[in-house]
Amino acid sequence: MNRALPCLLFAALLPTLSSCGDSTNTIDKDEIAAQAQTFFDRLAEKQGMKFPPIKCPEDLEAKEGEKTRCSAAGNDGTLGITVTVTEVREDDAQLNFKGDEKLTKP
């Protein structure tokens, strides 16, 4: 992982999914991870690198200000990624992805 990658911020517009029998809209953890992976992969490719797999441990409520943490574990450490819902419009939620400034050593 390159040290320049953690400081990146990414906004994506993602569809939200309703939980069964619940009026709360949520964004699936796998969808969050896939969107973050696509973004970080593109950045890494530009630098001739491969970005490690991103994992998100929980779904995220599609409510402005809600946050979750994802991570990408590489050979030189783990990058924490904060995911924040910045806006919700109908069935779409805008997310910001921000990598931590420092890696956590293995």
Structural class: alpha+beta
Tally of individual helices: 1
Give the tally of β-strands.
8
Low-confidence stretches: 17-22
**Helix and strand sequence:** EEEHEEEEE
Supply Rg: 14 Å
> In percent, how helical is the residue content?
10-25%
Give the N-terminus to C-terminus distance in angstroms: 13 Å
**How many domains make up the coordinates?**
1
- What oligomeric state is this? single chain
Major β-sheet strand ordering: 1-8-7-6-4
Strand % is 35-45%
Gross geometry:
elongated
Instruction: Let me know the average pLDDT.
Output: 81
For the sheet with most strands, the description reads: 5 strands, antiparallel
Quick synopsis:
With 106 residues, the chain is of the alpha+beta class.
Task: Characterise this structure.
The chain is built from one helix and eight strands; from the N terminus they run βββαβββββ. It is of the alpha+beta class and 106 residues long. It has one domain (5-99). The longest helix is centred in the middle third of the chain and has 18 residues, at 29-46. It is elongated. The chain starts with 8 loop residues before the first strand and ends in a 7-residue tail after the last strand. The relative contact order is 0.28. The model is unreliable at 17-22 (pLDDT under 50).
